[in-house]
Amino acid sequence: MTDTTYHGLRMNRVFPIIDWLKTYRLSEFHDDLFAGIITAILLVPQGIAYAILAGLPPQLGLYASILPPAIYALMGTSRTLSVGPVSIAAIMIASALTTPEIHNLGDPVQSALILSIECGIIMLVMATMQMGELVNFISHPVLAGFTSGAALLIIASQIPQLFGIPLPSCGLDLACYQSTWQTMPKITLLIGSSALALLIFFGKPLTSLLKKCGAKLSLLTAISKGGPLLTVILSTWAVGHFHLLDLHVAVVGHIPSGFPSITFGFINLEKCQILLPYAGFIGLISYVESVAIAKVTANLRGEKIQPNQELIALGSANILSAVFGGMPVAGGFSRTMVNYSAGARSQMAMLIAAFFLGLAVIFFSESFAQIPKAALAAIILVAIFRLVRIKHIIHTWRYDRSDGIAELATLLGVLILGLEQGIALGIMLTIASHLRKTSRQPHIAIVGRVPDTDHYRSSQRHSVETWHHLLLVRIDESITFVNIHSIEDYLANELKRQPNTHHVILICSKVKDIDSTALEALVAFNQSILASGKTLNISEAKPSLLTKLEKSDFLQQLQPGKVFARTQDAVKALG
Predict the structure, then answer these.
(1) Disulfide: which of 121, 150, 433, 547 matches 402 by Cβ 3.0-4.6 Å?
(2) Model confidence pLDDT, tens digit, residues 369-382
(3) Which structural domains are found in the chain, ordered by start?
């Protein structure tokens, strides 16, 4: 392989865009152009809304929607993942920024930029350590419980914005609620409820109506997903036309035009040290969510996601978001599904979306100033409501009680204890459940020979031939420290039940590994039965297992017991 070829292959791995651009066609560009415009329409209100949800100035959400998705388009392995500000990351940022130790640091914008760059660095470090498969260590029930709990927290945080008042702490005092209702600014409630109604109509009702009219899928997506932008346009027009600022309607406020200067001046070592644990948590959840979303659309198209390359792409996107003045980013479910449904063929769609959003930030920033916060709250509520998956908990509970408990505990932990503590509780319960399951007796079968054949099957399920002096035992999983004691007890009980046994044959066809603790226990078991005049024998062990056993003195201590390639050979030799 020449140096040029090697460097070319290396560049293709770092920048997957090189591969698909080689076969990119004009027809695909037409699809991507349409999808990019539709996604850009969604990026404006979501970028502003999620920045406000995180407790940050709105421009941080807009900046995070321009350069980060562009760098992901160059380096990511998903053709349709839409990277930018997301609701779950926003509520995690808000949670971090409101903790006393970080709040006392002042300047939440600086803290948010530090979180962005630390998230990116953590992801890149994980990539260098080949930790892309870490996504598999957080079970789906725990992730679903965390998402549902975080979504409920977001809904609770947006209801006051929708109503235009702080959420009252009335408890059981009905008079307090009545007083709150009487003092509620009705114009803000009108804006919020109207925006909510419009967004709901742009969901299933309008989709069903368009389907009945025979609308094409692309047109249906374009119209139905335009609800957030139309909501922003109408509510902003109402604020200006009816002079609602005089009625104290809360609006977004000034957003600077153009782009910020690229800088690393926000880095403060003291703040970095304090923020690092929060950045690790945000980065981990953002990565897991992003890969999970990317896999959904990749599976629909028969494409492959490379988890380790996703760490590199998302890490780079977060670092560039920080130096570009943006908040932490991840793959967003609603934007990705809009991008996919609009017919996106590649990440060219996100490059186009970022381009149009960049134009909007340069030329139309002043128009965003009078967007009412109640309308943005309605957009967040409609986008986040689908993430509350109570039915999923019930389904999981019915299928697997342990997973159901972990999912429910994660949800309640997030609501009661906090985001970090909630997901930590879910992970601990999942690990405890796994250890409990694996510590139980593994599937073990007493086997015999099917008459007139060389096949050996379970004596409980088949009519087989057995021998009073041979005990044939098949263990159907690896032998480890968590199950070896159950295996020992099982063998001891069977030897008591069959006192005439002279030879025990362990059939290891399904045993992939024997760890050191289990090996010591087997040595002790072998010594105990040798003392009673019996032998322990091994059959059908995999070559990899035998290679590992040969590194110890187990095979020597097994003598006069033997290792047989086939169970039939063991029966003939010991019969």
Answers:
(1) 433
(2) 899 989 999 988 88
(3) 24-176+187-388 (no CATH), 389-439 (no CATH), 444-574 (3.30.750.24)
